[in-house]
C-alpha cells in the first residue's frame, strides 16, 4: 500500500514537469527567429554574473571553468560540421579552388544551440556562486593569464585551419541577386 501512495504523489510532480517542459520548449521555439534579442538577454545574464563575482570577490575557479567551456563552444561554433582534414580521404571536402563545387558552410554547433549552451552556462555558474563549496581560494591573475594563453593558442590553431581549407564561418546578410551586368561597356569598346 505504501508503494501506491508514493505513486499518487509522484504523478502531479511528473505532470508539472511535463507541462513546464512543454511551455519552456514553446518559449524556445518562439525565440528562435529573434537572434538579437536572445543575445541581448544572454549579455544581461553575463553582466549579472560578472557583477555577482565582482561584489563577492570570489568564485574565480567557477569563472575559469565557465571561460574554458565557452571557449570549447566557440571552437564548435567556428568549426565545420565535416572536418576537411578527415574528408580529404573520402574525396568529399570543402572547395579549395574557384573551379570546385560550392558547398555551404555548415557549423558543427549551430548558432541557436551555441546561444542556448552559453546562456545555460551563465545561469548554472550564477547559481554556483551561492554555494561556498565552489569558492576555492586561488590567485586569479594566474588563472586569467593561463586562460588568455589558452585562448590565443586555440584561436591561432582555428584560424590556421580556416586559412588552410579556405572557409569562412560567417556570412553577413543575405546574398542578393543583382542581375546580369549589361554589355554596354564591352560593346562600346568593340565599336572603337
TrEMBL record:
Cellular localisation: Membrane
TM ranges: 61-79, 114-132, 138-155
Keywords: Membrane, Transmembrane, Transmembrane helix
Pfam families the record matches: Rer1 (PF03248)
GO CC terms in record: cytoplasm; membrane
Membrane topology value: Multi-pass membrane protein
Keyword Iron: no
Family designation: Belongs to the RER1 family.
Entry function: Involved in the retrieval of endoplasmic reticulum membrane proteins from the early Golgi compartment.
PANTHER family with a match to the protein in the record: PROTEIN RER1 (PTHR10743:SF24)
Name assigned to this protein: Protein RER1
Phylogenetic classification of the source organism: Eukaryota, Viridiplantae, Streptophyta, Embryophyta, Tracheophyta
